[in-house]
Amino acid sequence: MAEKSVYRASTTAPVNIAIIKYWGKRDLALNLPTNSSLSVTLSQLSLRTLTTASSSAGYSGDSLTLNGKPQDIQSSKRTLACLSHLRSLRQALESVDSSLPKLSGLPLRIVSENNFPTAAGLASSAAGFAALVRAIADLYQLPQSPADLSRIARQGSGSACRSLMGGYVAWRAGSLSDGSDSIAEEVAPVSHWPEMRAIILVVSAEKKDVSSTEGMQTTVATSSLFPVRVQTVVPSRMDSMEAAIRNRDFSAFAEITMRDSNSFHATCLDSWPPIFYMNDISRAAVRLVHDINRASSKTVCAYTFDAGPNAVIYYLEESSELVVGTFKAILGEDINGWHGPFGDRLLSVTEGVALEKLDSRAISLLKQGVDRVILTGVGEGPVSVDSHLVGETGEILSEAAT
Amino acid sequence: MAEKSVYRASTTAPVNIAIIKYWGKRDLALNLPTNSSLSVTLSQLSLRTLTTASSSAGYSGDSLTLNGKPQDIQSSKRTLACLSHLRSLRQALESVDSSLPKLSGLPLRIVSENNFPTAAGLASSAAGFAALVRAIADLYQLPQSPADLSRIARQGSGSACRSLMGGYVAWRAGSLSDGSDSIAEEVAPVSHWPEMRAIILVVSAEKKDVSSTEGMQTTVATSSLFPVRVQTVVPSRMDSMEAAIRNRDFSAFAEITMRDSNSFHATCLDSWPPIFYMNDISRAAVRLVHDINRASSKTVCAYTFDAGPNAVIYYLEESSELVVGTFKAILGEDINGWHGPFGDRLLSVTEGVALEKLDSRAISLLKQGVDRVILTGVGEGPVSVDSHLVGETGEILSEAAT
């Protein structure tokens, strides 16, 4: 029996961290949001998903392997929706060009690995679905633009649509009921404001009480403060944030980022039953960011929290001394994360704000509760790569072996 | 030189804990609130302020002694406003009845003691100003009703107006700019629903970061979610809460109480900079209350938090086993507060919800973070007493000596 051909394409995709938060779906099946959102795509030097999509008549059925573990693809409606959408686009190509191999009819083998621990509580689903969609689109040689593909990735995980582009990315909520206008859009490329940096304080977390999907539904259904966030607060913040990015105005960027994070967590607290993602360590980080800004007599850093206790703190390259220097002085040299990408250039950073100017209780909480840091910055969208996680004969490889 | 007469009157006044929260002033000088609020007056067997007001030509000037410490009365605009208002009412009486001693012209000596540690972070200013106003009104033999006096006490401390009455008390925000319609009103007397109980979990607190007065101003000025709370959420909850009290519907009472506490803290978090009063221990109490209700298959308890981390948990006498029994099992017999008023009848309470049905992390946090409990229940308004903190010749006495 002749060996069956194995078609492959691989991509990496980035994590993104919202500065105007996505929270609330107006359509559960299509993952349509109640409001627009905006994020910074983070550098893949620090955090990324590597995904290989492959097709072969020799495969026995669609499969997905994530960090070495086979996933139950048939029970994931969201994954199936993405695959089916991508297959139909390939089929359209094949139907007008009979010279193309009929990949749309072949089983898919998808293999994906994150370069960061899933346990760290970092939103890996955004990078994961962005990589999955991008890799299959490449395998199928689809002509669709990143914005078109964002419509598909959105159905996998809402925020995944923002990981299909680099730099500063908006997800327009849209208003059509089929979701065709609910897509990602680049607000500004990396090159417009390349100095944006972030330090992630990874907080030792208990298992999350309430998943994002469940939490959103609860907030939409029960919070009496939520409608004003959706109708008034976020639309106005989207405009101000786009202006802040356009003008490279870090002070405005920072205030809107922090206020929007607080607003999102306020609507969680106002849900019934209430939802808490921030804990005392998170609040210590909030306190220290305000203290560092006060001590610096200008806004040099801004916190934001997703559906978990980790603090993501944005700052500009020029404020590395003040921001990273201070957190290094608090957390100590020995903590995991000062080395590696974005670490080299910060190794010499040792002086921040004098610790006497900061809340001592917050310092002590942070020391106790932060396990590791991740240094990163604004970065590019998905990148095609030659490191495949599926071998030439279809075997699954681990990243270490590629 | 003839000994000068000393006129005296003493009263005790209760603490009240709001179930619809007062947060936000529309007029700072007059202490006029942005929204109506509603509270349960707590039994003076557990918590109360004892205040003696006295007048004598032999005194050298107005003075106030609180828990043995002389206060700087001249720097407290709020106290001066109350004294001046009460004096003018006395003067009106004296002007129509010349047989009355001219007390309005005499210096006042006011001595006040709480029967609970100020450090416990319990709202003592409400009981304090209610007792001050009631004691002076008694000294002056003023004919004004508690509602009339509530208008004066409100100027001392907003929530004090609700401590001039027992049972279930509303503070109507009013709409007049002179505040004359911003007064307290009894929604229902103790006798209407005497079974209401509360356990206060006193959480080891750091010094409060932001005072209530400052916090309120920040929220009013900066929170974009706050206006909807004031305009829509609270008015509708006031109606539902009054109905719940009228119908003695604990399940409705509990849900509104918890949701309103969460809503208030959500607007604090949405303030700029954000304000946090609840901590991880507070959140553990929230979690356990929800768990106890779930395990009981009915709503048997309800949390509420003021501007601090202490949890006040309301329950009905009939649910003592489930509620107090559970907290006793968690916190242990040895913690301060199981004995004394409301403790005697609960000494035999030992069985609550099985601890396996509750979140183990929340149990462990509560054990670590709760210093003492206070057992109490709905109670009466201020009571005239014969235990004076000022002797017959004007000397200051301590309560232990009376």
UniProtKB/TrEMBL annotation, chains A, B:
The keyword ATP-binding is annotated on this UniProt entry: yes
Domain annotation Diphosphomevalonate decarboxylase-like N-terminal: ranges: 13-184
Catalytic reaction equation(s): (R)-5-diphosphomevalonate + ATP = isopentenyl diphosphate + ADP + phosphate + CO2
Record Pfam families: MDD_C (PF18376), MVD-like_N (PF22700)
GO molecular function, one term: diphosphomevalonate decarboxylase activity
Associated pathway: Isoprenoid biosynthesis; isopentenyl diphosphate biosynthesis via mevalonate pathway; isopentenyl diphosphate from (R)-mevalonate: step 3/3
Signal peptide bounds: none
Record flagged with keyword Transcription: no
EC number of this enzyme: 4.1.1.33
Similarity section: Belongs to the diphosphomevalonate decarboxylase family.
Protein's name according to its UniProt entry: Diphosphomevalonate decarboxylase
Biological classification of the source: Eukaryota, Fungi, Dikarya, Ascomycota, Pezizomycotina
